Amino acid sequence: MMMMLAICSRMVVPYDHSNSSKKALEMAMTLAAQDEKIEVNVLMVIQPEIPAASLAMTPLLPRLELQHEGAQEIRKEIEQKLESLPNKTRTYVLDGDPAQVIEEFARVNDADFIVIGSRGLSGLKEMFLGSVSNHVLHKATCPVLVVK
Question: How confident is the model over 22-34, as pLDDT tens digits?
Fold first, then answer.
């Protein structure tokens, strides 16, 4: 792991406020603290919901706005936590399919390393590996550390 960090300059940490992503953020911070040259980028991805039949009466836009408001509150918590690092840190709230957004963000921003939780907040918590982390693990162009 130390050898990997020697070549790491940009780390991406997907975060969805699940226990697994909290552990991934802690691990990323521990790793980044070993070299202050490592930039830590924390991503939260909001996936626009497709209204279910029972929710069809509720307009999509207000629900999306509520999701963004919640994400901004979580973002503040993350930024406070990251203040303990001497590293350059950034937080992002993006829209889209989480797996694709994470993969694309890492590629476009030349990430060297991704630290991701094994499972997120999806309703399918019984899967061996979350669908997002599984997608990122197989499609990312850089090393991925999956934290359990």
Answer: 999 999 999 999 9
